[in-house]
Amino acid sequence: MSDLPAILLAAGGSTRMRGADKLLEEVNGVPLLRRQAARLCAATRGTVIVTLPPAPHPRDAALDGLDVKIVRVADPSLGMNASLSAGVVALPDARAALVALADMPDLEMADFARVLAAVDDSATRIWRACTENGAPGHPIAFHRDLWPALRALTGDTGGRAVVQAHAHVTRMIPLPGTRARTDLDTPEAWAAWRAT
């Protein structure tokens, strides 16, 4: 099992759900946020950081009893990079850290573990999950050398600029099917996913 830390980005406003909270949608009776946080905790002995909106928030209860470090994002409306930056600032000393999105219900504990296990001491600086056909997705592990660049990001790009700038030192990690790209942002997406 890895001892690398992980960040679960969960501070977004769920704005495309038309009033519902996608991270509190239940999957087999468990809120998605709790399900994915628990899977990360099972994949690593390292610190699992969960970024959340300011307290109090309905998502707080979904994490009760889990061994996670909650980091509050003062203004999540500034975009995903506000959440990413807050999580990176809170990281403990480590050679790399995994960044995961909380709205990807197909990701299993083994998927997180596979990307974490790929982190090595080569010249690679990004280890990125992809579909079995090679389409890039999530989660993504970043070498500590890139943490300052991640902290400096603004907007809603989710680290895209850092990923693009380091494509030459990125290793792709295939996951089964399309797990690495399945995210659910709308009621329609949830309905279609549940139907399958």
Query: How many beta-strand elements?
Result: 9
H/I helix tally: 6
The mean pLDDT is 94
Domain module count:
1
- Which percent range fits the helix content? 25-40%
The helix/strand series, from N terminus to C terminus, equals EEEHEEHEHEEHHEH
Largest sheet: 7 strands, mixed
Terminal CA distance: 31 Å
CATH class: Alpha Beta
In order across it, which strands form the biggest sheet? 5-4-1-6-8-7-9
Name the descriptors.
6 helices; 9 strands; 196 residues; MobA-like_NTP_Trfase; Nucleotidyltransferase family protein; two-stranded antiparallel ribbon
Structure report:
With 196 residues, the chain is of the alpha/beta class. It has one domain: Alpha-Beta Complex (Spore Coat Polysaccharide Biosynthesis Protein SpsA, Chain A). 27% of the residues lie in helices and 21% in strands. It contains six helices and nine strands. The strands form two sheets. Strands 5-4-1-6-8-7-9 form a seven-stranded mixed β-sheet, sandwiched between helices. A two-stranded antiparallel sheet has the order 2-3. Helix 1 packs across helix 3 (109-118). The relative contact order is 0.19.
